[in-house]
Design brief:
The chain has helices at about 5-15, 20-35, 40-55, 55-75, 115-120, 130-145, 145-150, 170-180, 190, 200-215, 235-255, 270-275, 290-300, 305-315, 320-335, 345-355, 365-370, 370-380, 390-395, 400-410, and strands at about 110-115, 160, 185-190, 215-220, 260-265, 280. The chain has about 425 residues and is α/β, with parallel strands linked by helices. Strands 1-3-4-5-2-6 form a 6-stranded mixed β-sheet, sandwiched between helices. Bound molecules: adenosine-5'-diphosphate and magnesium ion.
């Protein structure tokens, strides 16, 4: 109602993210703040996130200021983020000016810094229920690390997320850091490898030394990168040296800070390295229901009917969260360019399949190539999502009776 997404998008294209009538919206939010109206304030939070994502930084900041003032007034209200105790994660604070170590030969930085500000607006990836619960528990343990330590219970400090590419592992790790209010030192391990003998091991030591001296989460992305050299038998000695360097570095970090490692190729990891982790968690491909939620998130603020999103969840069978996002981006571009015509999600998808030279051969995708009638019948047969004729009609931008006729015609043939 208040959030005129259409306007926001139009303005953003011109590089001037401004929300129309924002002063009135701000006044409403301030009034809700005075009344302590939780429902309105919750929507205002969502609006702030949407604005920040759309690049309307000034408006997002204005809303944040209102929330700050509520927190200040309440005095004891929950802080914006958790502050982990110094005992749990010690070291010098990281600022945007902190210089990260570099590779001596090439001067390339060994890691990238994600300050707390940069992490601020990241949303959590949408996961299936079981991994979502596991992540919640993991984060809970870290948030309550002090209590656990007081009780004499060991706190896990190293975690490995593994699973197919594009399932949100990097995003999940960054979001965890945001939840804990800690900056991230993000290193891609394959980026640390060097062709100079001994340099890779030296880089790993330099990276860990730096991480151990600073208050941060060490994020080791593409962790299997250390095993890549394995393909070349000539370099076996070097591989051993590198794996040993990693093992020693991880031991040097035991009891200091938090470390998250990520890999798409867990089978490439050395068993000794694998065992070093306190927790290991698989992030698999999203289920149909989760894909539906992911599509909902990425199509939010676009006029796509619920039924069409359900159909989209079916169409993305076997794909990752990142693939669903890419598909949604395509649909949004299509709907924007054809805003004045009668178009549908299926029109967009047909074009998408044409242009993306399908990376996936899921039955749902293949059936769209066989024509809409066969495709519609397949959709209605999908078990997980219980797609109805009305859903198919939503996706095709037509009526249920037309879908019914389309199917009947095909059955006769
Ligand atoms: N489960 C998910 N929910 C929402 N978005 C996702 C999900 N998985 C992936 N994405 C989107 O795809 C992007 C790339 O995912 P990424 O975290 O790099 O995956 P991975 O590290 O597993 O390869 C994310 O930044 C996010 O925008
Ligand atoms: Mg990743």
């Amino acid at each position: 109602m208040l959030y005129q997404s259409g306007n926001l998008h139009k303005q953003r294209d011109k590089g001037l993210p401004k929300m129309e009538h924002f002063p009135i919206v701000l006044a409403l939010v301030r009034a809700a703040a005075r009344e302590r109206n939780p429902a309105v304030l919750q929507h205002a939070q969502r609006l702030r996130e949407a604005l920040a994502q759309g690049g309307a930084d000034e408006e997002a900041l204005a809303l944040e200021t209102v929330f700050e003032s509520i927190r200040a007034a309440a005095g004891k209200m929950a802080p914006a983020r958790v502050v982990l105790s110094k005992a749990m994660v010690a070291g010098e604070p990281i600022t945007p000016n902190t210089a990260v170590p570099v590779d001596k030969e090439t001067s390339t930085p060994l890691a990238e810094l994600w300050t707390i500000d940069r992490l601020q607006n990241l949303k959590a990836p949408i996961l299936d229920d079981r991994p979502a619960k596991a992540v919640e528990h993991l984060v809970d343990q870290w948030i309550n690390a002090d209590r656990l330590q007081e009780a004499g219970v060991k706190v896990p400090r190293t975690t490995l997320f593994f699973g197919p590419p594009g399932t949100g592992k990097t995003r999940l790790a960054l979001w965890t850091a945001q939840k804990l209010g800690l900056p991230v030192l993000l290193a891609r391990l394959d980026g640390l490898t060097s062709s100079y003998l001994g340099t890779t091991a030296r880089n790993i030591r330099a990276l860990f030394d730096f991480a151990n001296r600073h208050r941060c989460i060490l994020l080791l992305d593409e962790f299997d990168g250390i095993a890549k050299l394995r393909d070349d038998p000539q370099e076996l000695g070097e591989v051993k040296r590198v794996v040993n360097a990693v093992l020693q570095a991880m031991d040097s970090r035991a009891g200091t800070g938090l470390t998250i490692a990520l890999t798409n190729h867990e089978n490439l990891l050395d068993p000794a390295v694998w065992r070093r982790f306190d927790a290991r968690m698989e992030i698999g491909l999203p289920s149909a229901g989760t894909r539906q939620k992911i599509a909902e998130r990425y199509l939010d603020s676009f006029p796509v009917a619920v039924g069409a999103i359900k159909v989209l969840a079916w169409m993305t069978d076997g794909l990752s969260g990142s693939d669903v996002e890419t598909m949604c981006d395509f649909i949004k571009r299509y709907l924007t360019l054809h805003a004045n015509e009668h178009t549908s999600v299926v029109d967009a998808l047909e074009l998408y399949l044409e242009l993306s030279a399908s990376t996936s051969e899921s039955p749902a995708v293949l059936s769209l190539k066989k024509g809409r009638s066969i495709w519609a019948q397949e959709a209605l047969r999908s078990r997980d999502l219980k797609i109805t004729q009305a859903d198919v009609a939503d996706a095709m931008g037509t009526t249920q009776s037309k879908v019914s006729r389309l199917i009947a015609r095909n059955s006769v043939n």
